[in-house]
């Protein structure tokens, strides 16, 4: 207990006063400690799930010690209008709303805004929008001066909509362009999936000689972070020129991949055209194996057909976006970010209670 608050201990003291490793605390004991720690804020913390990814939201809720997400009514009228109603009081509470703005992106975004508005009107003390996959992040700059910039800056518009709806803080995971965080005038916590991806690679490919490959110049920072997590693996970069939306032309490879296991890392896989073209180029340059590692599995057609063609040994993605059973294929491996996000929410709740 610190200052009237209970915290989950990272280690316990032995009889001689020495610290014993966390491994000596059983899973049951650890759960009991976390449940006990939440008793002091249990009635002050609410976790609501949108319709986009309820399985992930449930996992996050259980990680922080709750039995499940809080109850909320969500429905659509015959004309497509959405309706949201909270089933519990949130007056004076810290509310976390978990919603990926994935397909159908317009509906999930609107539902998120309605949930925020409902919490604000119900007098929640803090409203945190937890957006594992932030849609519209690719429309983050005006890129066509020849047409006098007659295009929408949608990423900024969505940031304004969230702020105006009444959200206090936003949590995003591997957003497409980090500069999007600057569109908000409220606190933004940008967390990264590289610890989860690197943990999987170390566990199931621990003897591999890795080289981490950025599929374009914009992904170098992301690739460098993963390379560092993989014991400072070497880095390679693919020079890519995009000719149109969802179309790319691979030009050159900077770095060596010959005889190594190449890990192509990106924030998302949409139609898979870019990453599959990059994989083919890596094989032409002598890569022993080619793995794909991406945070968001958007998987728009014909992504599954391309990814399952044999160009990759494995395609590793997270569960920020639910993948329909018909889009599963042999090479697909899914790792969960529920603990990563859950730990972030736990620390934010401690911050709110200070």
Detailed description of the structure:
By secondary structure, this protein is α/β, with parallel strands linked by helices. About 30% of the residues lie in helices and about 25% in strands. The chain is built from 9 helices and 16 strands. The chain has helices at about 25-40, 55-65, 105-120, 155-165, 195-205, 220-230, 275-285, 305, 340-350, and strands at about 10-15, 20, 45-50, 70-75, 80-85, 95-100, 125-130, 170-175, 190, 210-215, 235-245, 245-255, 260-270, 290-295, 315-320, 330-335. α5 (about 195-205) packs across α6 (about 220-230). Mean pLDDT is about 85; it is low at about 1-25 and about 35-40.
Secondary structure blueprint with pairings:
Blueprint: E1 12-13, E2 19-20, H1 27-39, E3 45-49, H2 54-63, E4 72-76, E5 82-86, E6 94-98, H3 105-121, E7 126-131, H4 154-165, E8 169-173, E9 188-191, H5 194-204, E10 210-214, H6 220-229, E11 235-244, E12 247-254, E13 261-269, H7 273-284, E14 289-297, H8 303-307, E15 314-318, E16 332-335, H9 338-352
Parallel strand pairs: 3-6, 6-7, 7-8, 8-9, 10-11, 10-13, 13-14, 14-15, 15-16
Antiparallel strand pairs: 1-2, 4-5, 11-12
Helix pairs in contact: 2-9, 5-6
Our estimate of the beta-strand percent is 25-35%
- Spatial order of the strands forming the largest sheet: 12-11-10-13-14-15-16
Oligomer: single chain
Gap between N and C termini, in Å?
13 Å
Order of helices and strands: EEHEHEEEHEHEEHEHEEEHEHEEH
The number of helices is 9
What class, by secondary structure content?
alpha/beta
Number of strands: 16
Instruction: Give the integer mean of the pLDDT values.
Output: 87
- Major β-sheet profile: 7 strands, mixed
């Amino acid at each position: 207990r610190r200052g009237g608050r209970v915290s989950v201990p990272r280690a316990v003291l032995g009889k001689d006063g020495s610290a014993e490793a966390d491994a000596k605390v059983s899973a049951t004991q650890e759960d009991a400690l976390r449940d006990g720690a939440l008793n002091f804020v249990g009635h002050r913390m609410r976790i609501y799930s949108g319709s986009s990814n309820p399985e992930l939201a449930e996992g996050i809720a259980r990680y922080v010690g709750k039995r499940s997400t809080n109850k909320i009514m969500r429905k659509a009228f015959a004309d497509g209008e959405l309706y949201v109603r909270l089933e519990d009081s949130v007056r004076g509470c810290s509310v976390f709303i978990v919603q990926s703005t994935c397909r159908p992106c317009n509906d999930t975004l609107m539902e998120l805004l309605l949930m925020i508005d409902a919490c604000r009107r119900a007098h929640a003390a803090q409203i945190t929008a937890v957006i594992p996959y932030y849609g519209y992040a690719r429309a983050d700059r005006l890129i066509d001066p020849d047409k006098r910039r007659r295009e929408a800056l949608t990423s900024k518009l969505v940031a304004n909509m969230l702020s105006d709806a009444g959200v206090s803080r936003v949590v995003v995971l591997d957003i497409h362009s980090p500069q999007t965080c600057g569109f908000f005038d409220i606190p933004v916590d940008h967390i990264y999936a590289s610890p989860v991806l690197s943990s999987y690679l170390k566990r199931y490919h621990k003897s591999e000689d890795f080289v981490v490959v950025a599929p374009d110049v914009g992904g170098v920072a992301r690739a460098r972070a993963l390379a560092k997590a993989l014991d400072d693996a070497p880095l390679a970069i693919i020079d890519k020129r995009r000719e149109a939306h969802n179309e790319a032309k691979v030009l050159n490879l900077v770095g060596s991949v010959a005889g190594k296991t190449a890990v192509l890392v990106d924030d998302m896989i949409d139609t898979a055209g870019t990453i599959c073209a990059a994989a083919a180029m890596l094989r032409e340059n002598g890569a022993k194996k080619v793995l794909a590692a991406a945070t968001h599995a958007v998987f728009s057609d014909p992504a599954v057909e391309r990814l399952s063609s044999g160009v990759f040994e494995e395609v590793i993605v997270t569960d920020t976006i639910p993948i329909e059973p018909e889009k599963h294929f042999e090479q697909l491996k899914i790792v969960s970010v529920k603990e990563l996000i859950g730990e972030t929410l736990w620390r934010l709740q401690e911050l709110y209670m200070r």
